[in-house]
Amino acid sequence: MLVTAEDKIGDILKNHPELYELFWESGFNYSSVAELVRSLGKDTMLRTVLTVKGLNAELFINMINSRIGDGCQMEGLQYDYYNPDLPVNLLVKTACAVSEHFKEELMETVKARQKLTGEMPNVFIVDGCHAPHEFENFHDSESIDKLPDIIMSMSFDEIYDKRFIDKYVSQGYFTSVLDARQGNRQEYMDDSYTLNAGLAMVFLIDEKKLGDLPRPQKWGDLLDPIYENSIIAFGDEAKGIFEYPLYYFYKEFGMESMEKLARNVKGIYHAAKAARMAGTNSREAGAIYYMPLTFAQLCENKGVSIVLPEDGALIIPIAFLVKKDKVKELDYLVNLVSNTYGQMCADINAAVFNANIESKIPEGTKLKWLGWDYIRSHDIPALGEKLQEEFHKSWDKKPQS
């Protein structure tokens, strides 16, 4: 059962004691589950606790339910709406922070469609943000008809595989649903891909730990040897650095930038943990962090500030593909993915490229996009693996603090 804002702290931690770590990462630094419950009050509603703490309730609750669901799993929905014997109308892959919200909207959309027409779309839901699934090798598909009609994407994933691009994307089977004449920005538009939104990566600075060193203002500054062992990178403690910013470093500064960045990286953590660590006396903490603005704005520790890079916040794409001959037939799903889901992403401070979506990021924020020409001319997933490998060749040799 999903946790809601009205649930009591005592009940939540009794049923899910494993959430203690998430509360700790979010600034509730108590020595045990029992102490956490005593301090917050077992009968206190979660909403009250988050309001007092100044945390975004929707984002925190989504993180809780994602943790419970083992990596933003949308339990049960896949089997309710997926028939393996029929063509797939929609393949769902969402940002973890809004997965539960999207599930609710999807259910309402499907029910409304069934009531109106008596038919239901065939929906396949990927169990996790980066989970393997039976459609992931899109390039192996025998024909375009075997592929989902709408493919949602999170980050630089399998829809950017060069083999898939050459076989299907470049052949004109897909079309963007955004129109430059409606106020959408041309530099982010492509004929086939719909770049709807993107997580915007920024710097988070611990002013005290930075000391007399200058604030980094551009992404290239992070390669300066004056920041040796000062940077906390965005990634996974067990699996290593995330490849998203590495593409940008490589494009602008070459392969040698992997070694330079590795020299300056002190630790690698997920942004949810890093945002709570910044500004603390933790031995793991650093002076400079880079992470999506979504997480940076959750940090409420004193002496910590967000820096919007002068050359632009790096974009982690939230995009989708829709077959050209299915746009009209599946317009209700296209609207759900482009406008409803797009606004959900905007509400967690993602940058948006759809004129129908209300942006929530600071006005005037400059963005840095890898570029469609670059993406189409490179095998992005394979390049990402190579860049991670090169980074870890250097970083893994360093003595870990």
TrEMBL record:
Domain spans labelled DUF1858: 4-61
InterPro entries: DUF1858 (IPR015077), ScdA-like_N_sf (IPR038062)
This protein's UniProt keywords: Signal
Pfam family, one: SBP_bac_6
Signal peptide: none
Entries under Gene3D superfamilies matching the protein: Periplasmic binding protein-like II, SP0561-like
Record protein name field: ABC-type Fe3+ transport system periplasmic component-like protein
Biological classification of the source: Bacteria, Bacillati, Bacillota, Clostridia, Eubacteriales
